[in-house]
Amino acid sequence: MPTTECEIDLQHEDDEVLVRRTQRGDSAAFDVLVERYKERLYATVYHMTANHEDANDLVQDTFIKAFKSLNSFRGQSSFYTWVYRIAVNRTINFVKRRKNRNQYSLDDLDSSIQTDPDLVEMMSHITPRREVALIELHEKLNESLQKLSEPHRAVVTMHDIQGMTHADIAKVIKCSEGTVRSRLFYARQQLQGLLSDYL
Amino acid sequence: MNCRKAQELFDDLSRERLAPETAAEVRQHLVDCTDCRVQEQRTARLQRLLALKRYERPAPEYFNNFLSEFHHRVLAEAQRTGRWEQALGHIEELLAVESVRVWRYRFASAMGVAVVVGLMWMGVRQMDDPASVAGQMAGTNPSLIFAETGSSTPSTFAASLPSLLQVTPADYEPAAADSAVLTPAPTHADSPSPRYVLDRISVASASYDVPNVQF
Amino acid sequence: MWVALFVATTPTAVFAAGLLETIDQEVSSIYEKSRDAIVKIHAQRQFHVGGVSLIPSYRIGTGFFIDRDGHILTAATVVEDADTCWIDWHGRQISARILGRDPQTNLALLKIEPETGTATPFLPQGNSDELRVGSMVIAIGFPYDLPSTPVVGFIGGLDIQRSGHFLAPSHIRAECRLKPGQGGGPLLNVRGEVVGIAVAAHMDDQCCALPINAARKISADILQFGQPQHTWVGLAVSERQLAINATQSNQWQVFIQQIYSNAPASAAGFCNGDVLVSITSNGVHRSADVINTMFYHRVGDAVEFTVLRNGQEQKLLVVVGNRPPEEEFNPSSIQQTAAPQPQGQRLTVVPASQER
User: Fold this and answer.
1) Which residues contact A163 (CB under 8 A, 6 or more apart)?
2) Which chains have 3 or more CB–CB distances shorter than 8 Å to chain A?
């Protein structure tokens, strides 16, 4: 007879176990997966959309889609890669459709840029050609990112912001590592042009 | 090592993912080749800049309601599509599972649980509404929002209600053939708590902007 | 009015007692006369999950008959998405058919089939244009699971705007504290005629009511077309104050900010900045005038707009179209754009079950 002990155990279970349990009807197992990955998914989606509301909706949609189609997940990749792929695809499609609207929601969570000694150190290494306030830099960054096309934005987000490897990215967007590299190369070239004042 | 190969490995070098010998080769190439060195420095600066975005995080409390919002949305989806068997596998198996864990949308056959689900679902639907009430910023149109809050029916009402679903169409003769009359649903032993409807107009924060009217 | 007569003819000593007694009698008699025509409406929606029936959603509100054939007006949110709908009638439940709903005004038109030979009692309709701030109204409805209850109040205002949102047309704001379940109920004037429908509450102690003249128009449209027909011209206008001067009566102006393409107004010859002077014979000073005048026009009407441009008046003719659904309002459909103006918030009706 499952008791609260069972709940605690769920927290430490592997993704595979949780997926199987969900497939057999234990929806609480899916809750654990949601809690486990929500922030990571959110980060990627947010960096691609630059809008917190949209990011929230997209990540919610992603989990709903994952929940509904979990039965067709056969374990060919890890759960995380699978759900991450759903998120990235949804976000790319969403951004494509949203092309004409500029909806940056930087202001409402400005305080999220946490003051951090590493950040301070990092700022000193950037050597901008002129004094720049952190806010302005932040905005300029987001603007430039939004100017990239969606596939390029995705790889830059995943590699340079999220720190994923080429191999993982290739698994997510289902292409070769070579494609990932060349997209990264092209995207960085574009960004360098857009951000030349700050580099 | 040629330029192309070296450039491919820059990312890995900066992430310290290379074997020591390979890393040494790449570094040597950078010393020798000015073009690549410039390129690498540029890329490194760009990456440091981008890494700033890692600090763009909402406050930790931002995600507190994520899971409950997820539950709301799943329920709403269920109401819309009604195709839960895909998600949850076989319902019959589900109903047969012996578990005392009452998760919100666990469709166990126990009546008590069903009523709890019903009540909580009412609560869920109420909570949905504040989200939908928030004005949408696409210009002003002369439309009205009706936040369907109804009343929160506390369980005391449920207890005192007579069974409202004693629908008896017996006395009622269907009229002309062209009037497609709806027949009342069969009663359920577990009659649901009704929601008494009184919509509310949301109170948005006062604005001194002059809205425009699209007609 | 009976109050005025009484005040004029009664000596002060018995004034207070007599007046109250009269109010008591009047309210009771209006309630007694009207209660038969006011019914409790039940709406239920069944959910099925993989062959298992879930507990259905079940809503209760108030409605009232408007003619002897069994037509009922109520609030749209009471009956939205319902699979089955019925009313309590003489101790029995009678099925009701939903003829049409208008999300914009939260109105719904239902119909029951009265037994052959019988006619349904109905509330006489008043003229909501006659209402003034301070007019007395009686709202009647079924609070919770109780029998119908009258709530007496006064009209606090006739609002076109609330919290930055537009109500089309102007709604009645009455100082009536309504309870859940009373949504969709009638507002009666002191003669016992329906002058409004309680469609929403505001801040708990105010009632927002759709004027009966508007409800008449919408239900006529529903009967004829199966759905409401809201007018559409294709202009976005704003209002501004010319001079804050008590002596100037026409100190407000309505001017055109945007003209939609693919709309009735596109080829009519409007220019941005034109000041609207009148629509047919109705003068226009505030945005409210525009909303209220256009609300009562029908799709297909040829409407003459008089605009002021560069000091000269011009008359432009527009054939009114049908308002497109909300999703079609996007910037690309705007033909000309003036300088960006701050925009208020748009209210849209969101049925509780709607998803994005």
Assistant:
1) B15
2) B, C
